[in-house]
Design brief:
12% helix, DUF4399 domain-containing protein, 3-stranded antiparallel beta sheet, mainly beta, DUF4399, signal, 6-stranded mixed beta sheet
């Protein structure tokens, strides 16, 4: 990252602290009309236990690009499993509940244990930080039996 950009980010973060405000979203702009959605499975879907199933990601009014690629109005998907949305001004965590698709993938295969689960998509910019405004899908609930 170039030194000017680092300085600007540090200065902006310091200004937020000095003024007592809090950042509510990342600095990468997104089309406010952009919509992320889960195309499959559907809300309320029952999936078979012990078998991987496909999850496909939908996106409108925005493009998909791999991590580290800074191109206007693009980002990459993050699948949140049994998790709430993370802070919108920080990099999205990377763990078993926050899956990153930094190669620009638009679908995946996952396997979950039996029970009730939630799935939600959140777009991240080239550095895994949510856009401004943040682009995320509705949270859906699925059942694994």
């Amino acid at each position: 990252m170039n030194r000017i950009l680092v300085f600007v980010r540090v200065f902006a973060a310091s200004l937020v602290l000095l003024l007592g405000g809090a950042a509510h979203a990342g600095t990468t702009q997104a089309d406010p009309k952009a919509i992320a959605y889960i195309g499959w499975p559907n809300n309320g879907q029952v999936m078979q236990a012990g078998k991987p199933f496909r999850v496909w990601f939908g996106l409108r009014y925005m493009g998909v690009a791999p991590k580290d690629v800074e191109f206007k109005n693009t980002g990459h998907h993050h699948l949140l499993i049994d998790a709430d949305l993370p802070p919108m001004d920080q990099p999205i965590p990377s763990d078993r509940n926050h899956l990153h698709f930094g190669a620009g993938e638009t679908e995946t295969m996952i396997q979950l244990p039996p029970g009730k689960h939630t799935l939600q998509l959140l777009m991240g910019d080239a550095h895994h930080i949510p856009h401004n405004p943040p682009i995320y899908s509705k949270k859906i609930t699925i059942y694994v039996k």
